[in-house]
Amino acid sequence: MPSHAWYTTLVAQDPHNRHAVQWSNGSWTVIDYSAGLHVLDLHNEAKAFDFTTKNISNEERNHNAGYIYFRIQEEERSLIPLLPGYVAFTTAGKNRFKLSILESNNQLLFFWEEFGLDVSYSNRKAHGVERLAFHCMLKKYNLESNTTIRSILGLYDPQVINKLQRLVYEKFPLRYPTIFQMESPAVLSENLQNNAKKKEETLHRSLK
Fold first, then answer.
1. Mind giving me the DSSP string for 30-71?
2. Starting from the edge strand earliest in sequence, which strands make up the sheet with 107-114, in order?
3. What DSSP designation does 183 have?
4. Per-residue pLDDT, 112
5. Secondary structure class of 168 (helix, strand, coil)
6. 162: number of Cβ within 10 Å
7. Tens digit of each residue's pLDDT (9 = 90 or more) over 48-88
8. Helix, coil or strand: residue 8
9. Which residue has the higher pLDDT, 11 or 190?
10. CB-CB neighbours of 100 under 10 Å
11. This prediction's pTM
12. Cα separation of 153 and 161, whole Å?
């Protein structure tokens, strides 16, 4: 990555939590994990956002949706989870956006901020929040015809997708079983121990 590029600068600000991903068209997205990723109960339903149905409102059709669907060779890998705590700095059209996935009452919220041409992502021009995976934002900026939710979130990197799917699998083992079942017993044991430790820490905090 060029040392003077905007994505290099953003990653350098927090190299332990930020990761730059290049799209197939050469554009870049910087993913920020510093908020911590969380799996919700709705992710056990494996329901993907769908904006193709015309005889029902998008809000109603996509209630409890927690995934985007992108058909690839292995059907099970086609469901990509959208997890609270996921943040992406990206470009779309002529503008730069910071996109944050949040949670409220076990439902996903999608908070977007637009920074115009500001490569430092510090001078916000507009913002909004929605429940439809940034679909409304794309329509507002007339980007829905040539920009996908997957692309603006940087969900092209297999390592990023694997990280998100693994987190869902650790909480709901019936999701993605064939992807992770080939892991060695030592890896599986470590994952189970880490999951148990997280639950124990959560319980300990709740009892304080």
1. EEE-TT-----GGGGG-PBP----SSS-HHHHTTT--EEE--
2. 18-22, 28-32, 87-92, 95-104, 107-114, 126-130
3. S
4. 98
5. helix
6. 15
7. 999 887 767 888 899 999 999 987 656 777 899 999 999 99
8. helix
9. 11
10. 17
11. 0.83
12. 11
* pLDDT at 1 exceeding the cut of 70: no
The whole-angstrom separation of Cα 189 and Cα 173 is 13
Residue 184 and residue 22: Cα distance in Å, rounded?
A: 31
Could you tell me which of 17, 42, 31, 37 has the C-alpha nearest to residue 131?
42
- Taking the C-alpha atoms of residue 23 and residue 149, their distance in angstroms, rounded to an integer, is 12
pLDDT digits (tens, 9 = 90+) for 160-197: 999 999 999 999 998 888 777 765 454 545 555 555 55
CA distance 165 to 80: 7
Checking DSSP bridges between strand 28-32 and strand 79-81, what pairing results, if any?
Answer: unpaired
Q: What is the pLDDT of residue 146?
A: 67
Distance between the two ends of the chain, CA-based, in angstroms? 46
Give residue 196's identity as a one-letter amino acid code.
A
Distances (CA, A) of 164 to 6, 49, 161: 25, 16, 5
Tokens coding 125: 């021009």
Model pLDDT for residues 12-37, shown as the tens digit of each residue: 999 999 999 998 788 899 999 999 99
Backbone dihedral angles phi then psi of residue 108, each to the nearest 5 degrees: -80, 140
Residue written as tokens 């996903």?
A: 108
Tell me which amino acid residue 77 is: R
What amino acid occupies position 31?
I
